[in-house]
Amino acid sequence: MLAIYKKEMRTYFTTPLGYIFLAVALCVSAFAFALTTYYSSDPTSNTTSYFTIMIFLMVIFLPILTMRSFSEERRTKTDQLLFTSPVSIAGLVIGKFLSALTVFLMYVALSLFNLIPIYANVAQNANEPNATIIIGNIMALILVGSCFIAIGIFASTLTENSAVSMIITIGILIVLLFIYFINMLIDLPVLEVVFEWISIYGRFTSFTYGIFDIASLIYYLSLTGIFLFLSERIFQVRRLG
Q: What is the number of domains present in the chain?
């Protein structure tokens, strides 16, 4: 697993992909932060709107990061080497997941510099930034990002075309995010319960108030595990087939 992790990290930073992801994501997040807080018509230290926007922007960013995970191996036929390597299929999937997660965590860490202006200008703001809410939002961002990465890796096992993998990932993420808003329009109690349970965005909102919901934490970790397990199963079937 460690060998796969190192290989994937080298791939991210010996090709433009890792640099492009970090540069574009950081620029867009800085712009979104400026619009929602420091340079908004009503300057505020409340960062909830900023983190909410970033959740939706990750629907585009993270599929770019994961779209080549397995599809590129399949296209170039290097997956045949992986089939015969001493690394287990589970270790292979986890290694790729952890490498993409590491790049994403680098982005999250660097994006924290966006918070400097609201702390440096507390006197100009109506309220001092709420550290609990900020930590809750950061935790939610990481948990949701982990789910998105796992879903992206799963999608990349389905096709050898990176673009198709990206489209599949975006489609799944849109459904899981916008099901929350669909749920607000329906009036069927059974569907409402089901949609509320599987909604990624619905569980994200509790963290935005600084509430550390254990049920939501378990949900995000479980969803990540499920898609990694599905990725491992698909790759295992391909190896046996």
A: 1
Give tens-digit pLDDT for 25-60. Answer: 999 998 888 888 776 655 556 777 888 888 889 998
* CA 131 to chain centroid: 22
| Domain ranges, residue 92 | 2-240
Whole-angstrom distance, CA of residue 8 vs CA of residue 100: 8
Q: Counting beta carbons within 10 angstroms of the beta carbon of residue 106, is it exposed (0 to 12), middle (13 to 18) or buried (19 or more)?
A: middle
* The pair of three-digit structure tokens given for residue 179, joined into one six-digit string: 């099901």
Burial of 60 (0-12, 13-18, 19+ CB in 10 A): middle
Burial class (CB in 10 A: 0-12, 13-18, 19+), 136: buried
